[in-house]
Write a structure and sequence with these properties.
There is one protein chain. The chain is of the alpha+beta class. The chain has two domains: 4-56, no CATH class; 73-125, no CATH class. It has helices at 4-15, 46-56, 104-114, 118-125; strands spanning 20-28, 32-40, 73-81, 84-93, 96-102. The strands form two sheets. It has a three-stranded antiparallel sheet with strand order 3-4-5. It has a two-stranded antiparallel ribbon with strand order 1-2. A hairpin with a 2-residue loop joins strand 3 (73-81) and strand 4 (84-93). The longest helix is centred in the N-terminal third of the chain and has 12 residues, at 4-15.
Length: 129
């Protein structure tokens, strides 16, 4: 499949409710290189994703595997920073905060507005308590 198509179909999968979409380089039968498309979706969206895959890609078949997903409890908070207000995502395990990270979209916006590298923005924001 033309690799340019992946960007287009990734957007469609996310628009239709995919939780995650990714590609993996694999070796297929007869030692041919290939690309495995993986889509993580809730069970009620499987049929919709199958239709998209069959209509939008070159594949002739798919494999479906049920998996269990677990995630940390998340809360979004707004903090005052040297760059103004920034949204942070806090993650909790058994009621205890274990992670706190700034939201990517805010970091991207700040980097553009302040003409800084996004790495520098993350570095500054990582020191905010």
């Amino acid at each position: 499949m033309n690799p340019e198509i992946y960007s287009y179909i990734f957007e469609k999968f996310f628009e239709e409710g995919a939780l995650d979409v990714y590609l993996t380089a694999i070796m297929m039968k007869k030692n041919r290189p290939g690309t495995k498309l993986s889509i993580l979706v809730e069970k009620n969206l499987v049929e919709k994703m199958k239709k998209l895959i069959f209509l939008e890609t070159t594949t002739l078949g798919i494999r479906i595997t049920e998996i269990r997903r677990e995630a940390l409890e998340r809360r979004f908070i707004i903090k005052e920073t040297p760059f103004g207000q920034v949204t942070f995502k806090e993650a909790y395990y058994q009621g205890r905060r274990v992670k706190c990270t700034p939201e990517y979209e805010d970091c991207q916006r700040i980097a553009r507005e302040k003409r800084l590298s996004i790495s520098r923005v993350y570095e500054v924001l990582s020191k905010i308590e």
